User: Fold these one by one.
Assistant:
Number 1:
Amino acid sequence: MTVSLRHQDMANALRFLAADAVQKANSGHPGMPMGMADVATVLFTRFLKFKASNPKWLNRDRFVLSNGHGSMLLYSLLHLTGYEDFTLDELKNFRQLGSRTAGHPEYGHGAGIETTTGPLGQGVANAVGMALAERMLAERFGSDIVDHYTYVIAGDGCLMEGISHEAASFAGHLGLGKLIVLFDDNGISIDGSTDLAVNDDQLMRFEACGWDVSFCDGHDPDAISATINAAIENQDKPSLVACKTTIGFGSPNKAGTAAIHGAPLGNDEITATRESLNWPHPAFEIPEAIGSAWRRVGSMKSAKMEAWRKRLNESERKEEFERVISGTLPENWEAPLRNFKLKHSTEKTKVATRKASQETLDVLAEVIPELAGGSADLTGSNLTKAKSQKPITPSDFSGSYIHYGVREHGMAAAMNGIVLHGGFIPYGGTFLIFTDYCRPSIRLSALMKQRVIYVMTHDSIGLG
Ligand SMILES: Cc1ncc(C[n+]2csc(CCOP(=O)(O)OP(=O)(O)O)c2C)c(N)n1
């Protein structure tokens, strides 16, 4: 393995911002950022399409940090690449009340955070929704306007959570080939070695769900790069790349142990780590050459963004595209609904409420094409499918109705991803009682203040 000095320096900048911020706050998780710094450096410097000065560029690649406890990795990346919300002062205020760097990525705390993560596994499932939204939007507006990847970093904890199964199974079924999950395969969680509790062969598990799977040495930049390249080339299936890493890489006495998962290194160990990684710089001081190399990464996709803007300006669908992305409803969407209401109030129609809901959807789906409906296998009971809606299938993403299967939690988390991606108003149904199965994601829809519509219809008295 040959590691260029530049790569090493750039990765070490991430490592020390994380270790020093956690040390200063006397709280946080340095292990994951130190372990995944090489993978993140390769992803951002060689692959990720983004522009720090335009965090909302619709055609940017999405980057989701699903193991949100490693938030300092994300905050450091956003700072170093030049996102204006993530100043050095914000990093120094890690985990302090009112800071943007709350401790787990919180959507809305600063531009650049794509979704709120912290509850493990949610990010993976959000990313499935984002990748699905990308395919659906590309189908509607053309791949010259919508064409991006969705990358995720996820840890053992994310993959142990049940929601990862629903997400993996659903993404594999749909063949979401532009979804790439980089698994921080470090074999450590809080209690110690992961084999205290789990011995799944994650590659076989994902392969069984229809994914393309591979692995690499997560500290060898060229190996990481080659594996991501192969994942990109395979567009038929989502990809899981197991990156073999050492948690807390660089710490002489704590690397590879649970001791570095969620506690500051301590002053002596940070000093020892500085020596072992040959990083003599004081806390929060990044040498100019390394800082400017990172800032260049944040602006190097300018030409791509300009070319995209030109294509959009020339598109006859520009206005409609901008409307759906902004979340503005079409003009006159209310008129048919008003007539519908008038008719039923005049006729004093007697109808079950869920049937009334379906008939309302029939009216709305005709005039609001960005409505993206679905149900967790209760379409005929929840009555969520409007007459005009065509189902999404693995070979046809032009429709607007999603058969989520019996995956309530995955559905709710995917809807969060769809709405965060932009371009759609997702709604999904199940029985009211099964809000229990969706609750962590419903909570996040609410926390993130997102326009996700839950159609929770009737329950059976005898159900549980
Ligand atoms: C749903 C949920 N359960 C529990 C936690 C608490 N928690 C945070 S990190 C973690 C261990 C995660 O292990 P891993 O993904 O291997 O992280 P690493 O040790 O590699 O940083 C746990 C249990 C959480 N954040 N979310």
Note: The CA atoms of residues 211 and 238 lie 5 Å apart.
Number 2:
Amino acid sequence: MSDLHEMAAAYEQARTAPDVTDRATGLEEADRIGGVALVQARLQGQGAEFCADCAEPIPAARRKAYPSAVCCVECQSLREVRRHG
Ligand SMILES: [Zn+2]
């Protein structure tokens, strides 16, 4: 199992945790795993398989068009809105 799949699984688990403390801890853990996975992906010159923001799978077509993309189209546009106010 790759780190990216581990990250997605960790996010999913955290999102559905019944206890709010478990959920917070789980999301922190998922961020840690996700951070490692993203660094590894960048070192390999590849984009992420899963969105860095929402952990949804990034479509293959987008990854092909933007090999360095680390988040899905939706989150990317949200990031740009935030950046440009
Ligand atoms: Zn996303």
Note: The chain has one domain: 3-84.
